[in-house]
Design brief:
Blueprint: H1 13-33, H2 40-47, H3 51-57, H4 61-75, H5 85-101, H6 105-116, H7 120-147, H8 156-174, H9 180-195
Helix pairs in contact: 1-2, 1-4, 1-6, 2-3, 4-7, 5-7, 5-8, 5-9, 6-7, 7-8, 8-9
GO molecular function: DNA-binding transcription factor activity; transcription cis-regulatory region binding
Protein name: Transcriptional regulator
Pfam families: TetR_C_11, TetR_N
C-alpha cells in the first residue's frame, strides 16, 4: 500500500506527539461518525495541527486508517501466558470480547471493517492488523503442541482464528449477546476442536 508507507515510520519527539494526536482524532471520528465522515482537514482541526502536516504525512484517508491500524496493533495488549491451552485461548477470547464491546473500540472496529468491504487499501491494512494479532497469539498453540496437549501438525493460526470468529459474528452479524460467557464458549470450542484434530494439516 504505497500511500501508507510514509506513515509507517516510527517517529519520535514532537513528530510522535503529532502522530498520536492525529490518530486519536481519526479514531474518534471513526468511532462516532464512521469512515464516510473521515476527512483529513477535519482530523487536522480536531487534532490541533496544521492541514499541511496531515496531508504531507498521510496524504489520503486510506493511509491514515492504515497507520491507525498499525498503531492499534502496536498498542494491543500482549499475549497472556497462563501455562495451559485452555487458559491462553480463554484469555484471547476475553480480550477480543472486551475490545468489541468497548464503547470506543467497538464502533471503531466496526467502522474500519465496514470500510474494508469497499476500499482495497483499508482492507489490506485491516488484514495486516489481524496477521500481527494472530502471530502474537500463535505461540500459545505451538507450546500446547510441544507439551503434547494438541496433535502434531496443528495449525496455530487456524486455532487462533477459530477463537475470535464466533465473537466477530456476534458483533457484526447476528447481534447475539457478546459477553464473557460467549467468549469462554468460543475458547472452549476452539480448544476441543483442536484436540480432536480439526486443525491439523
Amino acid at each position: 500500500m504505497a500511500e501508507a508507507t510514509p506513515a509507517l515510520a516510527r517517529p519520535g519527539g514532537r513528530t510522535a506527539r503529532v502522530r498520536a494526536d492525529v490518530l486519536r482524532a481519526a479514531g474518534d471520528v471513526l468511532a462516532s461518525e464512521g469512515f464516510d465522515h473521515l476527512d483529513l482537514a477535519d482530523v487536522a482541526r480536531r487534532a490541533g495541527v496544521g492541514k499541511t502536516t496531515v496531508y504531507r504525512r498521510w496524504g489520503t484517508v486510506a493511509a491514515l486508517v492504515a497507520d491507525l491500524l498499525v498503531d492499534m496493533a502496536e498498542q494491543s495488549l500482549p499475549r497472556t501466558d497462563t501455562g495451559s491451552l485452555d487458559g491462553d485461548l480463554r484469555a484471547n477470547a476475553r480480550l477480543v470480547q472486551r475490545t468489541l464491546t468497548d464503547p470506543r473500540q467497538g464502533p471503531l472496529f466496526r467502522a474500519v471493517i465496514a470500510a474494508a468491504t469497499c476500499d482495497a487499501h483499508t482492507a489490506e491494512a485491516l488484514h495486516r492488523f489481524y496477521r500481527v494479532r494472530i502471530e502474537e497469539w500463535a505461540p500459545c498453540v505451538e507450546r500446547a503442541v510441544e507439551r503434547g496437549d494438541l496433535p502434531a501438525g496443528t495449525d496455530p493460526h487456524e486455532v487462533v482464528r477459530a477463537v475470535s470468529a464466533p465473537l466477530y459474528y456476534r458483533a457484526l452479524a447476528s447481534g447475539d449477546p457478546l459477553d464473557e460467557a460467549a467468549a469462554d464458549r468460543a475458547a472452549a470450542a476452539a480448544a476441543a476442536a483442536a484436540r480432536a484434530g480439526a486443525f491439523t494439516a
